[in-house]
Design brief:
Strand order of the largest sheet: 2-1-4-6
Bound molecules: copper (II) ion
Number of strands: 8
Low-confidence stretches: 19-25, 117-153
Radius of gyration: 22 Å
Strand content: 15-25%
Distance between the termini: 15 Å
Number of domains: 2
């Protein structure tokens, strides 16, 4: 029994190492141009985990500056080929502006879709499961991971990775209890 648990724990950790980087790398990338004097496209909708890159394509210096203080590129000079990137993990609508040209209407928004409420709920539930349940948990995670890569669901892939951590920790907790 002990050896089976140990093997399950090792397997869980192994799969975490195998799939966690893939989960982190899921994020898509979107480019917004900084023109004179507007963002193009000004309003975009992205999935959680998407990295938005603003690229300087104008003849004036521009910034991309979050109204909520989440990011601020500072002035990006024209002709520098400069850019600024920010990764959006949380759902919501994030408005931003260009400091020199806000009054000229150089404003934009990034809307991040979806919520991973159900994902995080299942993770916390599985973390308190017994070690025998962790075997099936990691098995199903390994089966769905390739699908997630195709549909580009970073939050789900991340949830699967967290689930693996949880099952691994649960296995170790049981091991330690048996040992003492
Ligand atoms: Cu500007």
């Amino acid at each position: 029994m002990m050896r089976m648990l140990a093997r399950m724990a090792a397997l869980s950790l192994l799969m975490l190492v195998a799939f966690a980087p893939a989960a982190w790398a899921q994020g898509k990338e979107v480019t917004v141009k900084m023109e004179d004097n507007f963002f193009s496209p000004a309003n975009i909708t992205v999935e959680p985990g998407t990295t938005v890159t603003w690229v300087q394509e104008g003849n004036n210096p521009h910034t991309t500056t979050s109204y909520d203080g989440l990011w601020d590129s500072g002035l990006i000079e024209p002709g520098s080929g400069g850019s600024f990137s920010f990764t959006f993990d949380e759902p919501g609508t994030f408005d931003y502006y260009c400091i020199p040209h806000e009054s000229m209407g150089m404003i934009g928004s990034v809307t991040v879709t979806g919520a991973s409420a159900s994902g995080s709920a299942s993770v916390s539930a599985s973390a308190s499961d017994s070690a025998s349940a962790s075997g099936s948990a990691s098995a199903s995670a390994s089966a769905t991971a390739p699908d997630l890569a195709e549909t580009g669901g970073p939050s789900l892939a991340l949830a699967a990775a967290l689930l693996l951590v949880g099952s691994g920790l649960a296995s170790f907790a049981v091991l330690r209890r048996r040992a003492s």
